[in-house]
């Protein structure tokens, strides 16, 4: 049982949790209640530490922020953990199977040795019937042991196959958990993992990735005038363009709502700007069907894109913020354009 608080304690934690919940821009639902309950009760030190840091900055926490906290600190078995667990089970069963196979081979060799010894003892007609009978008993026991181990090997081989199927199912579940259903792109959680992994592989002063933050222009107007069904088609259309043009180690993601992101681990800033311009042009040239009528196509859809290239020591959140600011600048400059984020000015040697 995860929570072992008395009714009186639980009531007090409920009061404190609700007090926090009313002070922020997030829904009063079980997910957020769990975050605040574990915070006020002190049962989750890692969660408490991160929340304390966020609260020091003042302001009201958003639904997105609290959902991220729940995912990182409370979800009992995320997709990444499940995949690791599946791999561990497969490895364990494989090792047991190998050990049993080795034992079976050894027993087989021992049985063969006893069989030869039995033949040598019986062949000379030595009259040592008791000894020969004893050896025969040992031989029968060894044969039975061989049979038992053979059966065990067969069963373990079946377990290995079943575990591999389970590992594949867990891997598929992990993949599905990281995919946005509407666009087919990586979802926000997958984006966070991809960017963290990319930055985690950097060593010293090695060149970091480039990041594209992409936002549909006037998307609220599209939804209001043409309906949310058509808005979903527009999102799916952008997703299709990104899937077709972002390949290899690069990751295209639906960041949230009408915003998308592209992580480019091995692309320099010039190449990132070039790709951004190509994506912008492809979206601007695209047409989205409004209904089943072949003639009913809607154009004038555009995106604004902010590009940022990572510099040594920059955190994932800072990189996203710089790309976001470049995206905002693209919006302010008239939309349907690409803006490259300036890099921080260094004063060393000045």
The CATH superfamily title of the largest domain = Reverse transcriptase/Diguanylate cyclase domain
Described by the principal axes of the CA atoms, the overall outline is elongated
Q: How many strands appear in the DSSP assignment?
A: 7
| Average pLDDT over all residues | 80
Q: Structural class of the helix and strand makeup?
A: alpha+beta
DSSP summary: helix tally: 11
Count of discrete domains: 3
Largest sheet: 5 strands, mixed
Architecture overview:
With 350 residues, this protein is α+β, with helices and mostly antiparallel strands. It has 3 domains: 67 residues, no CATH class; 99 residues; 153 residues, Reverse transcriptase/Diguanylate cyclase domain (Alpha-Beta Plaits), CATH 3.30.70. Helices cover 62% and strands 9% of the residues. The protein contains 11 helices and 7 strands. It has a 5-stranded mixed sheet, sandwiched between helices. Strands 4-5 form a two-stranded antiparallel ribbon. A hairpin with a 2-residue loop joins β2 and β3. α8 packs across α9. The longest helix has 49 residues. The relative contact order is 0.07.
